[in-house]
Amino acid sequence: MGIKVTDYIADFLHGNGVNQVFELSGGMITHLLDSLCVRERIQVISVHHEQSAAFAADACGRMTGIPGVALATSGPGATNLLTGIASCYFDSSPAVFITGQVNRDEQKGARSIRQLGFQETDIVSMAAPITKRTFRVQCAEDVPAALCRGFAEAVAGRPGPVLLDIPMDVQRAVIEDRPCATAPDESTAPKVDLDPLFHAIKSANRPMILAGGGVRAGLAATAFRRVADALGMPVVHSLMGSDLLPFGHPCRVGMIGTYGNRWANVALMESDLLIVLGSRLDVRQTGSRTDAFARGRTIFHIDCEDGEINNRVKHCHGIMCEIRPFLEQLAEATAGFTPCRTHDSWLAEIAALRASWPDTAELPDAPGINPNDFMHRISRCSGQAAAYVADVGQHQMWAAQSLELGPEQRFLTSGGMGAMGFGLPAGIGAALSAKGSPIVVIAGDGGFQCNIQELQTAVRLNLPLKIVIVNNRCLGMVRQFQETYLGARYHSTYWGYSAPDFARVAAAYGVDSMTINETSGADPAIEWLWRDPAKPQLLQVMIDTFSNSYPKVAYGRPISEMEPLSEPVEMEST
Description:
With 574 residues, the chain is an alpha/beta fold. The strands form five sheets. The protein has a six-stranded parallel sheet with strand order 3-2-4-5-7-6, sandwiched between helices. Strands 11-10-9-12-13-14 form a six-stranded parallel sheet, with helices on both faces. A six-stranded parallel sheet has the order 16-15-17-18-20-19, sandwiched between helices.
């Protein structure tokens, strides 16, 4: 007996733990959608733009560790996935993207023409630079092996996206009916010589850990917390590592980098030992002055990719190893470890820095609602939320600076790609992965408009999304750049830009909504937002157009020198 290829794919996805796939229907994936529908074991989530499908799959992969899956038809469907694929690649999110392709006899092949079949597009070549691997499947018998290798590749080493492009005639072909394979576990756990690291820890007076998104991507958060508890040294985090330690953890310092907490950046620059776990040390973390970042401290850099070590920041002690086995080995070695007595005084110094530079005091003269204060307020009332999903912009930085995350709460955002429009569709993916637990989506007015159509998806599925629109009536991050470098000429960010009343838009979609303009309305509005945790709601928070994301590293200076107290000496390049 044989089995139709798309039936095999549906069985394989189910056998490998996939519970949802995201898609926008098109001709070249109709057979696959039909197989998923007939088998009724995987929830098919129809969205209203393929980019949204990709962002939702990204969130599923991050929340579960199982590759998120998105489907798209050939041509525009496939190309619309590319931004989301790139976001998965840069943020190390495991995902598998399956695109339909025109029949093999409609493909141009080696002909010197642009296109033969309708919507024929070489998505494999386009996606190759932003995927771990692509498969151009041209033979039905190759589908099982391509699926198995693709799923294994998506989670192996540094996770990321994989793409399979399958022609329609291959999809409807019949292959041998055999048990669907599961992706093999290819992880290894080489032993690492920890003696140099322990010697450095015992010799340091001001040691510090910098935890990045690679800890989450490597499914190593539990081991990381064991290490943090055992060593008892201060921990700073990058944007993508925001949820590694809960807000109240005694070792947690705060976020470092371009928009990091001022006290965290100052503390990092005063450290004499820095242990970097799963962080690329890119310009948003170190600033442009990598010499200043490295000076005066010993740096151990642990990463699963050799190319990341001593890339921008030189003279690091590199340890190339997958983060989970490294941290599990370190956790075992630190069992019963007695933290150095100087750690308490070092932590007390950092606490004094935090008291001197509170995040809520960075905008002392801003009229109306203080965005950092609002983030504290909403997180204190959102203990039921499984995750916060932030779109991209100033609100993203206020959220990362000030949210009070609980022990099991996640923080998802588009980091390396920095893609506006991520928030709402990723919130949908997170909500489906969280199996009924509410998700808080924090977006700006600009980013929310990029995929606003997915309000319909949230309503149709009745998802418990608590959507907060931080509306400053502009594209604030770029407007702030224009204020600093371009003489406050706000073209296309404030001049020539507009946003709707999102409360009225939400009402049109059938979503209950509310708007607040003053701090006095914040607590009642947040209480309203959680009155019914199970339903979608939207809260529009109006803030001053000219509120800046502070502190911000003064470009060209060390990361401890931040605006508005210091001025840039160079033009930003990123």
